[in-house]
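Collaborator request, handled under Task 6.
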Amino acid sequence: MTNRHDYAYPFRIDPASAQAAQSPYSRHVDEMIRQVLLTAPGERADLPEFGCGLRQLIFAPDSEALQATCQLTVQRALNRWLADQIQLQQVTVSSGPGGDQSQLIVLVQYLLIETQTPRTTQVIVS
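C-alpha cells returned to the collaborator:
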C-alpha cells in the first residue's frame, strides 16, 4: 500500500499548513474521476477537449439508449484522460432513486493501477 499523496481537488489551501491541500492517492484519483465526468468539453480554456459532458445528457429523455450513450461517453473519457491511473472494470448508468429522470447515477468500478486495488466511484449528475 502506498502512502503517496497528491493535490486535493478542488484545489484549496490547507489552513493548518498554509500550503496546497493534499489528499491520499486513492482519494485523489476519485477526485480526478469526478473532475473528468463533471467537466464539459470546452469548459477549460487551457485544455478544451478535457471532460465528458455528462450534464448535457441529463436533459435527454431517459431510455436504454441514453444510458448506453452515457456509459460509452464515460468509458471513452476515463480511458482517454486517466488510463495511466486506472483500469476500468465496469461503468453502470441508471436513473435516480425511484426512477427520478432528473438525475443520472454513474457507478465507475476500476482498478487503481499503482496499488492494484479495486475501487468504486459513484457520481450523481443532476
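The cover message to the collaborator said: "The domain at 5-125 is CATH 3.10.450.40 (Nuclear Transport Factor 2; Chain: A,). The chain has one domain: 5-125. Please let us know whether this matches your experimental observations."
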